[in-house]
Write a structure and sequence with these properties.
It is built from 3 helices and 3 strands. The protein is α+β, with helices and mostly antiparallel strands and 93 residues long. Strands 2-1-3 form a 3-stranded antiparallel sheet, sandwiched between helices. It is globular and about 50 Å long.
């Protein structure tokens, strides 16, 4: 029997509604207190995290990016905000 896949925290920042920057991928902390402390740290830094079960950090990051993109295109409000941001950013004067 194989061992279960590890759980990773993919920590990211959204600099604008149309963009994501993965800033770290780290093994999930063990224990509730450690998880709460780590959540407080990245929340204070303006970051968010996806919790992903995957064989390695690179795969976890790839999955998180796909999830973020799927959430973007399936949420009318998020997609509208991203489209508005892109239109304003690419406006020529």
């Amino acid at each position: 029997m194989s061992s279960p896949l590890p759980t990773w925290w993919v920590i990211y920042r959204e600099p604008n509604p149309a963009e994501i920057h993965v800033e770290a991928v780290e093994p999930a902390p063990t224990g509730d207190d450690a998880q709460d402390a780590r959540c407080a740290e990245f929340t204070a830094a303006g970051q968010r995290a996806y919790v992903i079960t995957a064989p390695d950090a690179e795969t976890a990051s790839d999955i998180a990016l796909r999830v973020w993109a799927e959430e973007l295109v399936t949420s009318p409000a998020r997609l509208a905000a991203a489209n508005a941001h892109n239109a304003a950013s690419h406006r020529t004067n």
